[in-house]
Amino acid sequence: xxxxxxxxxxxTGRKQPFDLGTGPGRVxxxxxxxxxxxxxxxxxxxxxxxxxKAPLAYVLSAVAxxxxxxxxxxxxxxxxxxRRTALVCCAAELAGVLIVGTWTLADPSAFADATVxxxxxxxxxFIPVILPVTGMIWLRRARTA
Length: 145
Known about the structure:
This is Integral membrane protein. The chain crosses the membrane at residues 27-49, 55-76, 85-104, 124-140. The protein has helices spanning 3-6, 9-12, 24-50, 55-77, 80-106, 127-144. The chain is an all-alpha fold. It has one domain (23-144). Helix 3 (24-50) packs antiparallel against helix 4 (55-77), helix 3 packs antiparallel against helix 6 (127-144) and helix 5 packs antiparallel against helix 6. The radius of gyration is 19 Å and the shape is elongated.
């Protein structure tokens, strides 16, 4: 092992890479992983069994699953580029939750069945609206660490 490898990053003036999936990030990885599986499972079953009933709702749930999966992957991958990408995805997720949540309250007849983001995620204990906000706070903190 060379002296450079033994010297802490702070002593050499290099910033140590921030691991997005540690500490509170680990909880986010867990929640996003669970929501990826939940949203994907829900949308796949609904699309297979009764796609004609509510295609918009089922496709939106599939989109939510993709967004959750991508954020999970970015948090696990780590690094600055993944952090920025996850931050953009969390903002898009929050926009989706707010748009779909407002839409389902303003015009309930537009959705023949609920999506993951319906009523701001009421069926999921409002976690779909809390999760992206929490994610963005963590990802912004990770930038300065």
